[in-house]
């Protein structure tokens, strides 16, 4: 059996990808369609999803379904569950999320809480609702998007790093809990990625992975590893941070890294 056939048999026939309009989510949807799975495309921007859907259908002879919704809104996960109720979903990729940056006390509390809703509450609800469906069929997979920032507190991105710590911990636990039920779970923890994420988070990233590299590495790791760290920069920083024995030292180091990424937010001389 080929790798593609094995992927189809384990995770097909349908996949649900949130955050599919841009960046990592879009690349995940493209890789999944290349493997022959039908894809439910989920994000806020309907036009972008419809355009991607037409592209995937023409290139790979798969079916797509567009579900335009905002995961920060109450009832959004239930709406997605309802919209996919008759589909045999074998793979969930929870790639929707966003970040903020800057001093915590200068942040907009409403925006921070919205991020917690999208990055944590919605991810939990998605994993729970679709996890039941995957367990019932005794096969499937779940991809949760962690981050390099998930492994210690990060001054300058306090709430964002905390949300990703939550996702990392959730994925690790579900990897063990769902394995006997036939469901693979992987946490993907990339470093900086070239996408609209940096602009939305108001971060300047000098180096970054292409979203396609993250998508490939993550899907390749599904069923093989608990956590994948796509890209050389993420692996390098993992080793560098591991050499700092105390968590305090790691927090301080990541704080210095983040200061460089948000230095443009301060007026010259401030």
Helix content range of the residues, please?
40-55%
Number of helices: 10
SSE run: HEHEHEHEHEHEHHEHH
Number of domains: 1
Structural commentary:
- The chain has a single domain, classed as NAD(P)-binding Rossmann-like Domain (Rossmann fold, 3-Layer(aba) Sandwich), CATH 3.40.50.
- The chain is of the alpha/beta class and 270 residues long.
- It has helices at residues 3-11, 23-34, 46-60, 76-83, 109-137, 158-178, 197-201, 211-221, 232-242, 247-261; strands at 14-18, 38-43, 64-68, 89-94, 140-145, 183-188, 227-228.
- A 7-stranded parallel sheet has the order 3-2-1-4-5-6-7, sandwiched between helices.
- Helix 2 links the parallel strand 1 and strand 2.
- Helix 2 (23-34) packs parallel to helix 3 (46-60).
- The longest helix is centred in the middle third of the chain and has 29 residues, at 109-137.
- The protein is built from 10 helices and 7 strands.
- Helix content is 50%, strand content 13%.
Any key phrases for this structure?
270 residues; alpha/beta; Rossmann fold; 13% strand
Topology of this protein?
Elements: H1 3-11, E1 14-18, H2 23-34, E2 38-43, H3 46-60, E3 64-68, H4 76-83, E4 89-94, H5 109-137, E5 140-145, H6 158-178, E6 183-188, H7 197-201, H8 211-221, E7 227-228, H9 232-242, H10 247-261
Parallel strand pairs: 1-2, 1-4, 2-3, 4-5, 5-6, 6-7
Helix pairs in contact: 2-3, 2-8, 5-6
In short:
By secondary structure, the chain is α/β, with parallel strands linked by helices. The protein is built from ten helices and seven strands.
